[in-house]
Amino acid sequence: MAAKYTPAPRTGDDSKQKPVRLQTFSGANGLDEEAQRHTDDEGDVDGQTANSTQDKPKLETDLRNLFFDDGKRRIDFILAWTIDHKRPETARQARQVFEENLIKEGLELEYDTRGRDVNFVKVHAPFDVLKRYADILKLRMPMKMILAEQHMKEKYSDWETPLPSVGARLWNNTIQLVRKFMVPFHYDETVLPTVSRSYSCPYSSSREYLFEIPENKDEYFSKAIRSWIVDYILRRQSFNVSNSKTFSFGIKKMLSDGFYSAAYPLHEGHWKAGSANNARKVLFDHWANWTNCLKFQPIDYIRFYFGEKIALYFAWLGFYTLMLVPATVVGLAVFFYGLGIMSTNIASKELCDPHNNITMCPLCDARCPYWKLSDACSHAKASRIFDNGATVFFAIFMSLWGTLFLEFWKRKEATIQYKWDLTTFVQEEEPPRPEYLSKLENWQIFKMNPVTGIQEPHLPFWKRRFPIFLASYSIMLFLAAIAVTAVIGVIAYRVSMLAALQLIPQHVSSNSTVVATTAGLIYENASLVTTVTAALINLAIIIILNVIYGHLAFWLTDWECLRTQSEYDNSITIKLFALQFVNYFCSIFYIAFFKGQFVGRPGKYRTIFGGRQEECEAGGCLIELCIQLAIIMVGKQLIQNNFIEIVVPKLIKLVKRKCSKETREQKLAKTPWEKDYILAPAESMSLFYEYLEMVLQFGFLTIFCAAFPLAPLFALLNNIVEIRVDANKFTTHLRRPLAEKSANIGIWYSVLYGISRIAIISNAFIIALTSEFIPRLVYTSRYSPDESLSGYINFTMAYFNTSDFAPSDRPKDIHLGVISMCRYKDFRNPPWEDPEYRRSTAFWHVLAARLAFVVVFENVVVVITSLISWLIPDVPTILKEQIHREAYITNEIVLKTELRRAQGEDLNSLGGAHLSDENLRYSPHHSEDIELKKRSPSTGKSKSGSQIYI
């Protein structure tokens, strides 16, 4: 094949631009007349011209300049470079060798070198090259439907109109009702028609007659596949004249060495209002735009534009968000139930009754006064909102919800894999990372790769890798200890702050009414003020530590010198998730399981660093756990998810716009590849942070759901925003990412499964240790005379003789008078019983009940969730049948077509035959999701007029 290599200066004339048929998006009715005059922050609308308004959707639209100067060959990839002043000749030679190898491979190049800081190479892959690599990579491509139709008639003619059973008809009617209810949430199917699946098989150039190849062969392979094949070629070409350096190959190594500054496919067009219709704009208008925040996502079209890996993330995020709806409904029901019983609960009434005249022991030594139990009335009532019988139900429900979410996602994932032809996808052998090769450039120890047969640098495990791993994970433990230390600091703040607020009555002057009123309000809510301020301080520490952890985790992973990108990604995932998990959940675990558990008793408190440990309020620690969880979870979402991802980019863009000295004419003169170049690069770690954010949210939802039933509501609201934020980012702010393939969400499924198992244990202990559920249950079943909660508050309070205080610990504030006996929350013998202040019988009954509950709860929930996992197959039965049937039918089609070809029959006449739904259905249970739609004669277009490519 003749290859164009001579650099051809770019004329900038867009008049040669050729209209191209959109393969996956239908046009809008006409275009805004202001299209040519519209500009955005990066420039104009890429030279797009407005078409006249028509009465029907348009398929022919003027796209941005995506072609070589001849207006015929499509730009599949862009390589950009800047002048390397340190080693210009080395960089020039490397690029020249690399580009010559690309030409030998069959790619065609064109240059844009107009004396600017950045130069560009435009890469085009001819059909023969695409066909050759589709054959090598065994890409599954659609087959001619007429071949499938003939086989259907022969094999399954008596299956065409099966009589459904009563159960099937009832199920179908239910599905139709649900779909009618969900109609307002669907995207506009006149613009984005439903995509159906066709028969496919691995492409073979020797069996080209099996495939539906259009007259314009450049339209056969989608733009995503074209860029993916080009990237595959770029990753395999050498850029070194001699063979002395075995690993001097691949575009990633060239980017790492600075020979190229960027490599990316082009966006299809502009997304701004008034721009000519194009794939990018349609995605923005009907997916990324904020007006679609309550709409479902066009996952198939996301896949067409961004590839399977990114589309799978958005499919998972959309499914997760949809599964949050039932959890939100149940959580709201539990919350409103708690509001209803807040004031009617007998225990709350007893605690709030001032006539009970229960005097409590001081909350700190010497400086804190005695206080009345009724002062904690508001705190106790608030606790009852979250600490009630419904808490157990919600914990069990969320454990089951977590399991159902994971099981149903596996089924959804299997359906997606089938529809997108990923069921047999196998990741190719990964080459070594460029950073790995650069570090080991002068390494003397080599080992043969058993797959590729290439001698690669080898790091001995015990001599080199083990010491580094040991040091790396030791540093991780140290970083985790810093988070624990920060929590201890916040605990010290809480203790000192609460003690300081208890001194307010002694220092407030009665002459200032406003100050006295405010101080009195703070004094009455001292615990709440302390909890909220401590949680805010903890949130600030968490955000700061996250920034530090992010940089150090990457530094440690780079230090480990991992060979492949998958190993690198898995290592950074473990590190960042572990560090952020400790950072976010350390303080919450402390309040849930340790606060108030080992404080001792009046006269003999256990101390840390010379100070008393924190005690739970009279209403329990669950409300404090709820406040801490709410502030950290909601604060993280508001600051990180919304402010950093929405506000900060807009501020940066605003500053750039104000500082930019470019004129409108200069912006208009920019080429599409220049405009895409100034966008932020779509790095491989972009999706990593999105997954990490959602997985941590899943941890908040499940691990501590017993303490915060409103968590699903906040998660749902956040995710509705998050989907559009991420969609907007990928559509407008980033260069077009490479359309990578991926069959699943990778290691994140295992992380989610691990969190769901931890959640079962965590919620069991929260209910048993932190809430009052077990003590109330023990009291009503054993100690209550009428099996009610009447007398429960007195049951939970122990007596202490104030004369047993050490002289230095006695309260100096005696505004309540001389107190001979005070109460404290514990199960201990009174001073008049022998042995005094020892654990009472009730304590051991309650402890036994707590432990029994943990064992029963864990085993029951684990058994139920395991049973659910076993009963729900990972792949739907009907889908298994369809996969096996399609494999059989495809094989039969190939065999029979080969036989007819061997007999001399002309197969070219089969290309334009008309197909019907009745003839194409090969299963009596064919789901609508994969059912072939009616197509118009000879064009293969859907009813809406759009050409669909699978």
Can you give a write-up of this model?
It comes from Biomphalaria glabrata. It is a multi-pass membrane protein. The protein is α+β, with helices and mostly antiparallel strands. Among the domains are: about 65-155 and about 185-280, no CATH class; about 295-360 and about 370-420 and about 460-505 and about 515-665 and about 685-775, no CATH class. A hairpin with a 2-residue loop joins strand 13 and strand 14 (about 605). It is elongated. The strands form 8 sheets. Strands 4-5-3-8 form a 4-stranded antiparallel sheet.
Q: What would you say about this model in short?
A:
By secondary structure, the chain is α+β, with helices and mostly antiparallel strands.
